[in-house]
Specification:
Order of helices and strands of chain A: HHHHHHHHHHHHH
Chains: A mainly alpha, B alpha/beta, C mainly alpha
Oligomer: heterotrimer
Number of domains of chain A: 2
Structural class of chain A: mainly alpha
Strand content of chain A: under 5%
Bound molecules: adenosine-5'-diphosphate, magnesium ion
Shape of chain A: globular
Helix content of chain A: 55-70%
Radius of gyration of chain A: 21 Å
Distance between the termini of chain C: 30 Å
Largest interface: B-C, 46 and 39 residues
CATH topology of the largest domain in chain A: Serine Threonine Protein Phosphatase 5, Tetratricopeptide repeat
Number of helices of chain A: 13
Number of strands of chain C: 0
Structural class of chain C: mainly alpha
Number of strands of chain A: 0
Shape of chain C: globular
Order of helices and strands of chain C: HHHHHHHHHHHH
CATH class of the largest domain in chain A: Mainly Alpha
CATH architecture of the largest domain in chain A: Alpha Horseshoe
Strand content of chain C: under 5%
């Protein structure tokens, strides 16, 4: 029973991705034939930058391959056979019902909350709903640093509430450590993002020391340590030239 | 066994409207050890215009099979049958026939009127004539008042009457009725008998099968008696009664070889 | 043609006097409206999921109506023995088959119009725009697909003895074509030779009913299909429907009217019905 709910939840989660691609999506047969594997889920969409988007597009463009026979060629007129994304304003709302159903079916599937919250917040301007959904997800998954990370973004980017953003991100960091200690296989991708966000936040707030310490941790896990080193150097220069009042970081002050 | 003809021909020079020649019908079954059933064996008869012809025989004698051959439902194994001198394989032969099947239901979701209109269209009766024709046959069979009711609400007697009505819709010259009175109550039977009489008085030819002899005596000009697929006797009722020196029922039993007390 | 139309009109009358169609329509409407009353994240302009659900229900209902009606036609004529008075009239068996086909197909068309009207109302009320061309293409292609389905089921109903098993078999075949038809060529590539050839042959032989399923294009507001392609699809469907009808006629014209005749003792009927060869030759 529980198992089938998960299966259905996964199905609907994928359905959201199908909708995101306007129905252009490889079937199990296309996947089996060894055409380029598709993105597994809309999760990537959450982290999708324009550069990534371009890469994904070229990768997907040909999952159908050239037509194999006249029936194949003819039939491509009758179903979506071109790559496409929901990128007209507001169109992304169409994926929401499936994510809602997926979350209801399997409340422990963390991805559902983070993906839905991303779209609600970033593209649909529904910050309240995003926050509510993430809180719901947090209740069901108290140990999920992924959800906490997204929640922090709501506070930071949409509510401009640095204090609460800092709190949840720090909490996320703690949860991350707990889980990595348990699993042994650390999820560096999310860690990087948490650390980056925290460093940016502290830098913005003028807490140089803290920002530096996050950056140093980030350098250790980042695939591009030189870039981080550059950032550290820049920050250090800033610290030297800044007025001494900002140096301690113990005192909460406004933005520099 | 050859038929014991009592009287054969009618008026010399008259052409039969229905003619069966040396007809053999076999049913093939897949049952082991019983691959072929001979339902009709070397049957020959003729029916002349204006006659009411009774086709008699006990259950399983082959009456329905013969009727089905006349309508092209069952393929003949040997021999042939003609209606209006046209082989029954030809659908044209059916244009001037009225047929009442044994135990039939009609499209239950239609009303009597709709059913008759449907059949009338198949007969290509001109549109303007269809209405009056339907009125006429419905009045004839006494379903005038129920004409707008769906057939599924009809009683058994009414169903038989709508059957007669559809058999009459094309003003046929020849009526083939398969057990028209089976399953009816005495009043229903009497109605059917009256109807046959009325048709006869209009000059129609009626060929009907029956296993109930009481009704036959009063309406038939001639009868044929069939038993186990073979024709046992044919002729006028009066001639048969005379020959066997008893009433038709006893003659019938004698003809089919049934000896009371020997069974 | 006249005879066929008369028979067809009876089939249509039967459809609208039976409850099946209304039940399916009301079910479709209720489920769609229920799903439409759900709110997701306070956004009341979400529409595509609703279009998809409504179209799915329409497809299921239409298949049920098409297969249900056509699987029943000839067996019911035999069972109720209405075929006797009918064939005793000047009508050929070919006209009877043509009439049954036309009746079922036109009845399906009428049902589709009602269903798609409902679909149109639902999608316009949400989207405030109407992609008329795509809408008509979906309706049109759906109808032609049902033509193939009806012809196929009629063929099944003269080949298989029991009407209920015919319905099930036809539905199974149709559903497998709809779900797998498009992919059989890819499956064939992955199989070893004897099987691969067989699957390929099936791929090229079956009517590709899934072609006519343009739901994804409608749901996701893709552009309408090129009209010439639509004409091609129509011809493709017509070719298969005619082929199946011809096969139905070939089988039916050689069949006994009944597999057993009335008027023999009831005890022997069952045995005989099972024992009689379903195809008895006219010419012997
Ligand atoms: N479809 C059939 N298949 C095999 N045998 C049949 C079939 N129909 C009738 N028979 C047999 O043919 C014989 C004549 O039947 P039938 O013509 O119905 O008799 P009747 O109408 O005189 O009662 C019977 O022995 C019956 O069992
Ligand atoms: Mg009989």
């Amino acid at each position: 029973m529980g198992n089938s709910r998960q299966l259905f939840a996964n199905h609907f989660f994928t359905k959201a991705d199908v909708y995101f691609h306007s129905g252009y999506y490889p079937s199990v047969f296309d996947q089996a034939i060894g055409g380029a594997p598709h993105i597994t889920a809309a999760k990537d969409a959450a982290a999708e930058t324009d550069a990534e988007h371009g890469r994904e597009q070229s990768e997907e463009a040909g999952f159908l391959g050239p037509p194999r026979d006249w029936i194949d060629r003819f039939s491509r007129n009758f179903y979506p056979s071109r790559h496409s994304h929901l990128d007209r304003p507001g169109e992304a709302r169409e994926i929401l019902p499936w994510l809602r159903i997926a979350a209801d079916l399997d409340p422990h599937k963390v991805e559902t909350y983070t993906v839905a919250a991303y779209w609600l917040r970033e593209h649909l301007n529904r910050v309240d709903e995003a926050e509510q959904l993430l809180r719901e997800g947090w209740r069901a998954n108290p140990d999920s640093y992924e959800i906490l990370f997204e929640l922090g973004r709501v506070f930071d980017e949409n509510r401009h509430d640095s204090q609460r953003a800092r709190n949840v991100w720090e909490l996320a960091l703690g949860k991350w450590r707990q889980r990595s200690a348990r699993n042994g296989e650390p999820d560096d991708f999310v860690l990087e993002q948490i650390l980056t966000r925290l460093a940016q936040l502290e830098e913005r707030e003028g807490h140089w020391e803290k920002a530096l310490s996050y950056l140093e941790k980030l350098e250790a896990v980042s695939p591009k340590p030189e870039a981080i080193q550059q950032q550290i150097n820049d920050l250090k220069k800033k610290v030297v030239s800044a007025p001494p009042a900002n140096r301690s970081g113990a005192q909460q002050t406004g933005k520099p | 066994m050859p038929a014991q003809a009592v009287t054969t021909a009618k008026l010399p020079g008259m052409k039969p409207i229905l003619k069966i020649e040396d007809l053999v019908v076999e049913y093939r079954t897949r049952e082991f050890g019983q691959r072929v059933t001979v339902a009709v064996n070397r049957l020959s008869l003729e029916v002349f215009p204006g006659e009411v012809f009774g086709f008699l025989g006990p259950n399983g004698a082959g009456k329905t099979t013969t009727v089905n051959v006349l309508l092209g439902f069952v393929p003949v194994t040997r021999g042939a049958a003609y209606i209006f001198n046209v082989n029954v394989r030809d659908p044209i032969a059916r244009q001037r026939i009225g047929y009442l099947p044994e135990l039939t239901y009609y499209y239950k979701f239609l009303t009597a009127e709709e059913l008759l209109r449907f059949y009338a269209r198949i007969f290509r009766i001109p549109r303007a004539e269809i209405g009056p024709r339907i009125d006429e046959v419905l009045k004839l069979v006494g379903l005038d008042t129920a004409r707008k009711r769906p057939i599924k609400t009809y009683s058994k007697g009414m169903q038989q009457r709508i059957g007669l009505a559809q058999a009459l819709i094309n003003e046929p010259d020849l009526l083939i009725l398969d057990e028209p009175t089976s399953g009816l109550d005495p009043i229903g039977r009497m109605n059917v008998r009256e109807m046959i009489q009325r048709l006869k008085s209009k000059g129609k030819t009626v060929f009907f099968s029956s296993h109930e002899l009481g009704e036959v005596e009063t309406v038939c000009d001639r009868v044929a008696i069939l038993h186990q697929g073979e024709l046992k006797a044919t002729g006028r009722v009066s001639d048969l009664v005379e020959k066997y020196k008893c009433n038709l029922e006893q003659a019938f039993l004698k003809v089919i070889g049934y000896e009371p007390g020997h069974e | 043609m006249n005879n066929a139309l008369s028979v067809a009109s009876i089939v249509i009358k039967e459809l609208y006097r039976r409850k099946d169609f209304y039940v399916l329509f009301v079910l479709t409407a209720i489920i769609t409206l229920l799903m439409g009353s759900l709110h997701f994240f306070n956004d009341d302009r979400i529409v595509r999921y609703l279009k998809e659900i409504c179209l799915l229900l329409i497809w299921i209902s239409a298949l049920a109506i098409a297969v249900g009606t056509s699987a029943r036609q000839i067996p019911a004529e035999r069972e109720n023995r209405t075929i006797f008075p009918l064939l005793a009239k000047p009508i050929t068996r070919g006209q009877l088959i043509a009439g049954k086909f036309l009746g079922c197909w036109l009845a399906c068309g009428l049902a589709l119009i009602v269903f798609y009207f409902f679909f149109g109302v639902i999608s316009v009320s949400r989207e405030h725009q109407w992609a008329a061309a795509s809408f008509f293409q979906a309706l049109w292609l759906h109808w032609w697909m049902l033509g193939v389905v009806v012809a196929m089921t009629l063929l099944g109903s003269v080949v298989f003895a029991a009407p209920s098993s015919n319905g099930t078999i036809c539905l199974l075949i149709i559903l497998s074509i709809l779900l797998l038809g498009r992919h059989l060529n890819k499956v064939a590539v992955q199989l070893a030779e004897p099987m691969s050839g067989v699957v390929s042959a099936v791929y090229f032989a079956v009517p590709h009913l899934e072609l006519f399923d343009v739901r994804d294009l409608v749901v996701h507001n893709w552009d309408p299909i090129n009209w010439l392609i639509c004409v091609g699809a129509t011809l493709y469907a017509a070719a298969y429907a005619i082929f199946f009808l011809f096969a139905t006629w070939l089988v039916f014209r050689r069949q006994l009217v009944l597999r057993w005749q009335p008027g023999c003792s009831p005890g022997t009927r069952v045995g005989r019905a099972a024992a009689l060869s379903p195809i008895a030759c006219w010419a012997s």
